[in-house]
Design a protein that fits this description.
The protein has 148 residues and is α/β, with parallel strands linked by helices. 45% of the residues lie in helices and 17% in strands.
Length: 148
Amino acid sequence: MLSPEEIMKICLKEAEKAFKENEIPIGAVLVFQDGTLIKDHNRKEKKGFYSHAEFNVLMKALKQNKDDLRSAVLYVTVEPCLMCIGAMIEARISGLVYGTQEPKFGGIKILKEAWKEGRYPHKFPIYEGLLKDDCSNILKKFFITKRK
């Protein structure tokens, strides 16, 4: 079994692929208890607004007949947005691990507030900050190249 750090490094490799494709460099890996890994990256420019890394791995899981995600942990380089969080809730994932916060579009704070209010009965543990600097640096590098 791979360590959490090794899994996040796979996410970072996916983020690098996105970077090379001129996509915002975010990578995700869905990890199942049996060791199966499903990985992908942002593809918004090619496939549309919904094609975030997190959404892509969830959809790939369905296509591979992995429709019971209650034992799957989602790793992603950046804090998920509200759309992706909604998909995670509906998919009933068992956990979320992400690298760096996304202060503009991240939705974890809103999710936690909703849980406190008794909304969204499906809850899962969230771990933030795994390889935070690496996950943050690839985003900074991407946006520096865009702002030149």
